[in-house]
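Internal QA ticket QA-208
Title: Verify multi-chain structure generation after dependency bump
Assignee: T.L.

Test input:
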Amino acid sequence: MTIQQLLDMELPIIQAPMAGVQGSALAVAVSRAGGLGSLPCAMLSLDAMRDELNTIKSQTNKPFNVNFFCHTPPTPNAEREASWRTTLTPYYQEYGVDPDALPTGAGRSPFSLVAAEVLEEFKPAVVSFHFGLPSTELLERVRGWGAKILSSATTVEEARWLEARGVDIIIAQGLEAGGHRGMFLTDDLTTQCGTFALVSQIVQAVDVPVVAAGGIADRAGVSAAMALGAAGVQLGTAYLLCPEATTSKVHRAALQSKAAHHTAVTNLFSGRPARGIVNRIIKDLGPINSETPEFPLASAAIAPLRVQAESKGSGDFSPLWAGQNVGGCKEISAAQLTRELAVGL
Amino acid sequence: MTIQQLLDMELPIIQAPMAGVQGSALAVAVSRAGGLGSLPCAMLSLDAMRDELNTIKSQTNKPFNVNFFCHTPPTPNAEREASWRTTLTPYYQEYGVDPDALPTGAGRSPFSLVAAEVLEEFKPAVVSFHFGLPSTELLERVRGWGAKILSSATTVEEARWLEARGVDIIIAQGLEAGGHRGMFLTDDLTTQCGTFALVSQIVQAVDVPVVAAGGIADRAGVSAAMALGAAGVQLGTAYLLCPEATTSKVHRAALQSKAAHHTAVTNLFSGRPARGIVNRIIKDLGPINSETPEFPLASAAIAPLRVQAESKGSGDFSPLWAGQNVGGCKEISAAQLTRELAVGL
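Actual output:
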């Protein structure tokens, strides 16, 4: 069965959920165009999530995807927080940020019973997870209204783990991909494979359909992914310049600059490895720092710097998420982009 | 013009030169089968190189490729050597290696005037370089007998640099690739792109034909690379189990074990980043160590440990070069493998 049949959509194109840079507008546009639009909920309050879901439901009858993180929230570690804030002190001084007035809290919540309850009011046809899967109870709840389940694998082992738990479609997230690595069975970055090697091996290891993600930017990339045996593709970066995305001004500028050709997997912004454009903070501290508070706690310490820098037009402290191929980023409507990616499919 | 026309061969398949694990036999088998066989010369003396070239010439009239490294030999740094040997001391003790009797010298020589002189006796149709290009004088000398020049690019910048210097075909070496990263304009590993992202971008950046390398293991991978716009493919890992390769016993065993699914880019074995199967020394010291002597000097300190461990059937200290996809490794003849990769092309 093709993923178009499985998900009742026209095109084997999934718009990657991208928390912080898009909401319902992008999801609606892609779903209406025949692809699968996605609403990222990791950074939404329950009320905001309900509003966004209402908006989508009021604007399209097409299937769409609702995405959640499913990490285990860490116990804050005061010592580690203090050490990390000390590392950032020179920047706090430079920007006049009071380190004693830093926000606390996680910023990103995992999928939960209350989220499932809100979600059930809308019964979306597709629910996807990042960082593995939620508890069996929560997963069964989602399956209860007939939703298809998607999750990302960054290794063959993760793909087999997801298949064993009944996931309907596996997203093979190659190392080229922008944003957070979905890795959940390991935290060893050397296990992370390029899209070419990963898709090829996951397709051979599992029986469920595999969607390729990472480094795909255009129609040729879609064909190549299909040639490797993928049943579809998931693209995020390519949609970042679409008017329907909420990508910030500094992020848009960075994507259109030469800087966009150099990305790195970094844990500075959230505590988990994620790919973004190399900016000042990554250059200064190195992309991976063992001192960062655990995901998602690290975001609190850097957030005020980001706000201050962005107010001056600088992305020096912003997570400028992007994959290793920004060649597909265009300032065209998400519908047009979706159709261009699928010409002749 | 296709690379088959340009190089006067039947199939757009290049066997990657792999110093230390193959010689003329593999090159002859692949060239005879219609692909482009390669003879790696980085670890050969001039006499050995002449012998190998004689062997190839006596066994086939088909075009073949002769490959050289073109690094700048470093100045040995006694302090760094000493520090590195101190790091390795526990292993020397474990294996009864006398640290005062370690071999010295580089182990790998760059392309040189004397090498060019030997090469000119044979006038090979194709000469390829790793780590950039040799001096203009040396390059002109090689061009003098009509050889086509190939070199590897690991970034778009390197591809443009090579094109500007008249390289006939650029090998886009994605991060999945086994063995030494060909990087030469940067030593920052975060610049290294997965094959999917790299091929796609280099194809758009240059006008010369681009050959895809890294993570390609089978016919589907070849199709995918062509769909991305590559004019051909270069595979190394897939040939490592062929009887014509000189892959060691421990290396063959590792490639056929579960361990082969976890590789890392490491500088422990030579001083330059290269991808190999994660073994004890990589686990113990981490894949990238800032203390290693400069390439290629690092190999001397580890060589006796390798010999000792291999004599006991262990690959704990061996460079078990492999790419991120060993799915194509088969114990079949190189000719059969080459033909399987090209079915229907």
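Spot checks passed. The two ends of chain B are 16 Å apart (CA to CA).
Status: verified.
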